[in-house]
Amino acid sequence: xxxxxxxxxxxxxxxxxxxxxxxxxxxxxxxxxxxxxxxxxxxxxxxxxxxxxxxxxxxxxxxxxxxxxxxxxxxxxxxxxxxxxxxxxxxxxxxxxxxxxxxxxxxxxxxxxxxxxxxxxxxxxxxxxxxxxxxxxxxxxxxxxxxxxxxxxxxxxxxxxxxxxxxxxxxxxxxxxxxxxxxxxxxxxxxxxxxxxxxxxxxxxxxxxxxxxxxxxxxxxxxxxxxxxxxxxxxxxxxxxxxxxxxxxxxxxxxxxx
Length: 258
Known about the structure:
By secondary structure, the protein is mostly helical. The protein folds into 2 domains: about 5-75, Multidrug-efflux Transporter Regulator, Chain: A, Domain 2 (Orthogonal Bundle), CATH 1.10.1660; about 115-255, no CATH class. Helices cover about 70% and strands about 5% of the residues. A hairpin with a 5-residue loop joins strand 2 and strand 3 (about 40-45). Helix 5 (about 75-110) packs across helix 6 (about 120-130), helix 5 crosses helix 9 and helix 9 (about 160-180) runs antiparallel to helix 10 (about 190-205). The radius of gyration is 31 Å and the shape is elongated. The chain starts with 5 loop residues before the first strand and ends with a helix.
């Protein structure tokens, strides 16, 4: 009795894959047809259907084509078990990574709400959240725990922390706008904004802690380093801050004279 053979079209219908996929699997050696007809067309048998089911199962489990080929070439039960265990651990890791990404996006959405944020600043915020744990670990080796907790707002409730992050974002976003529109650092609106930024920071980190932070030598190559703002905006903010400090010192001196 002749074995029943299936054309590419029929085999595709039976297995639920496309003809293009079958041709690709043939080229890659994942599933080579059992035979060819007189015109050179691919022919498959029942064993190929069983093999395709295995391929689809392994693909569902997240195996790469290379891993599928290796798995199908091994017939040991222990080998399959080992492969499944490794794949399970890999998928768990991927799941954790996806969960972290979702949490990061959700946190950013909560921070920005309806605020129009420039794309570079938005990406910088995401990056800072992404490496937050590494930053905390690095600072823990440089500063006392109470100070590290202050920097990362551990003393605040989740709602307070979120509100503070939102206030900082709005202020930095406004500063970015002033910088891009060429508003001079000594302009009243810029100085007012710098004062507001200082007040926000003072609510979170006491001035003496801020002074200690400024003494840290943070290299751009360190895992701690990141910037929510561009170098140009950093220089702009530094100049605005310098002007504000000079003004405060002058006022303080005048008051002392009186």
